[in-house]
Amino acid sequence: MPVSTPFRRPPQNAADDPDSPEPTPPPSSSPSSALRARLAHWRAWRTRHPRAALVLRRTTTVLAAVLVLGALLLPNSFAALEPSRFARIPAEPVVAAVLLLQLPRVPRLVLAAFLGTGLGALTVLNLLDMGFTEYLGRGFNVVLDWGLLDDAQSYVADSMGGAAAFWASVGAVVLTVLLLVVMALAVVRLGELLVAHRERTNRGALMAATVWLACAALGVQTFGPAVATTSASRAVEAQANRVRDTLRDEAAFAKEAKSDRFGATPGAQLVPDLRGKDVIFTFIESYGRTAIEDPVTAPGVDRTLDTGTAALEKAGFRAKSGWLTSATYGGSSWLGHSTFMSGLWVDNQQRYRTVTAGDHLTLTKAFRKTGDWDTVGVMPGVQKGWPEAKWYGLDKVYDAFDVGYRGPKFSWSTMPDQYALEAFQRLEHGKKRDRPLMAEVVLTSSHQPWAPIPELVGWDGIGDGSVYDGIEAAGVEPSEVLTDSRRSKEEYGKSVQYSVTSLTQWLERYGTDDTVLVFLGDHQPIARVSGDKASRDVPVSVVAKDPKVLDAIDDWNWTEGLKPAHDAPVWRMSSFRDAFLTAYGSTPHPTG
């Protein structure tokens, strides 16, 4: 009889089967559980590899200390970025160490993270200061300048391409976030380390404070800079003062803008001595004193000015030239334009917004107010809506898309100056008209990065601009110029020569007995070209055939010709409007 096998119920799941392996618990979805698991894994790794863990801890601590000290001692300009700047003793970490030692753990961690984040933010502001000082000759304004970062991205896109601008923006954002986070973690780590060695920290803080005080009292220096420093605190104070001054200036300037010496002057009493004249105000981008006086750029530019003066004299024109101190430097051309036209010192974005939102009389608006001139603007650099045209008093504005250009861009510049001037002749200046013309023309070929630069072509062969295709393709790449100061100076000088020659040839070719040309630079080029301590002076010239036009400004004591003498009078750019209106017979009727 067969032996019966006891009945065995098949297992319903692995847990019911004694022979099955012990199941692995499912991973927890809780963030705190995941964090605990990672910490446990880290502790286990440290236990298995104690020597490697020690090296890692010490390396991390050293890196944190270097990062924090470097941020505390970082200057806010490239000129001050020298090794000796980092061989100093900052007071801030000594004070921070004393504070952290007095607090319980949670408040201590909060304060350390706050201080680290603040130090990261200060580092970002110092880096922005470096960039703004290099390009605009001033520090970054946390109230006004955020909008300029978008302009900077557009400039990079026009100069280096859209991909470069995109990755530069991504890199800037990533760097900012990393600085804020990593700096906070670094200060927290150092704070915990100090507390873990409280007795030694107390002694070290006392010793550091004593050394700092002694160095401060004795004025000890390391190759120039003082050893004892509070540079981080002073940088914070400077940023706070900049914010305070900006807010105060806004109210003061709004009041100043309402006061106008010619604000209530009737149109019939404005510039009566220029009736019947075509008056053209022309800005040449970045045309500054450097172009005429720097040893690298001056020989070519001076030769161009001398040649232009002789050619214009042969055509019957005379010129007088002087200097104006621009309200801006290295960029933000619109600040120079509005300062020149309004007679107000417009040196920041808030002032610009304030003045363009009001009805302050501009030079261009003065001509329109008479009712005796047609007023137009030729703005090849404008590529989007430009509501300021109404404030300037321009009946018609030709932007980058209104002049029929079909050629290539030359880096940032949308078209060569010679084309813009020929289009102005075709569209406005060369037309038969019932009344004279007042025009504001902005030339852009001398805008950085000065590569590639257009070449002069025959005026009759300009056409729709397609003639420039081969010239642009054969030109220098911006990347070849941007990082080389000497090369930047050379190409800058060539670009100014091109712009000035284009303008003087246009006047020689198309100017009449009734043409009056006023041309000037809007600002100096960036510090890489003009130098760290360059002035903000720009040349200005008045050119005309009618001798009465230049006789009216004899008392200005300007230099004969297109090149102002080194010691020619220097005015603030904001003083030109009133001097010009007065010279040509305007009667003051103040407002405000």
From TrEMBL:
Residues 1-33 are annotated as: Disordered. The keyword Transmembrane helix applies. InterPro entries: Alkaline_phosphatase_core_sf. This is CDP-alcohol phosphatidyltransferase. The chain crosses the membrane at residues 55-74, 110-128, 164-191. Signal peptide: none annotated. SUPFAM superfamilies: Alkaline phosphatase-like (SSF53649). The lineage of its organism: Bacteria, Bacillati, Actinomycetota, Actinomycetes, Kitasatosporales. Keywords: Membrane, Transmembrane, Transmembrane helix. The keyword Membrane applies.
